[in-house]
Amino acid sequence: MVVHTYANLFSNHIKRMGKPWLGTNRAVIHISEKAVERIKYSLADRPDCCAVRVSVVTSGCGGYAYHLEYALENSDPEDTTVEKDGAVIVIDPKSLVHLVGTRLDYEKVGLNEGYQFVNPNVSGKCGCGESFYYN
User: Fewer CB under 10 Å: which end of the chain, C or N?
Assistant: First the structure.
């Protein structure tokens, strides 16, 4: 597994943000075994794609939401790539700041299924649960 540490990628940005609690050895993102299986399953039907792109976008009443899409072979060279057991995730530099330390899981409960983000940087969620915010 390739794990990029936040300090290596954005040590100067940590200082500017004034968030020393981010630490120097936190992994960018942790991918659970269930998420690995689902990513590989999703990419099996898409030979033109090499990864799943995870980003944080402005959305909803809380401010931000997670966005997932397929990443093509010609991804931006500034993107961060995280790989675990053949499952590849690509993260753009702007989203990386919001995702450090996040755990990506895949859950199926009853008729509902989907990726779950456990993000230690999130301060709260909006009332409807569709978006989140940071302090």
Answer: C
